[in-house]
Design brief:
Number of domains: 1
Largest sheet: none
Helix content: 40-55%
Structural class: mainly alpha
Order of helices and strands: HHHH
Distance between the termini: 63 Å
Shape: elongated
Length: about 90
């Protein structure tokens, strides 16, 4: 009779086979090592960003005016576009 550990391993294998689409032995974390990337924004900063974005100011320009990194501004822009809060731009946004 299999012990409890072996029963657990078998159950985990069955669950993984049924529900996981891709094996994740190594997990890649996007933007983990991107320098100076901040993901926290105040409501006022988001409103300011939205205003600049709608004026069609570049990511580089917005970053300079808001004293944030370009990567932080780009991530906020992507977030706001996906949520439909600002109009989408061509991907030539730098």
């Amino acid at each position: 009779m299999p012990n409890a550990v072996e029963q657990h391993r078998k159950a985990v294998r069955q669950i993984n086979k049924m529900h996981l689409r891709e094996s994740r032995n190594v997990i890649y974390i996007s933007f983990e090592d991107l320098p100076d990337t901040e993901i926290f924004w105040s409501e006022k900063e988001v409103a300011t960003f939205d205003h600049y974005w709608k004026l069609n100011i570049t990511i580089e320009g917005i970053a300079k005016m808001m004293r944030r990194s370009e990567s932080s501004v780009m991530l906020l822009g992507l977030d706001r576009m996906i949520r439909g809060k600002v109009p989408a731009r061509d991907w030539n946004i730098w």
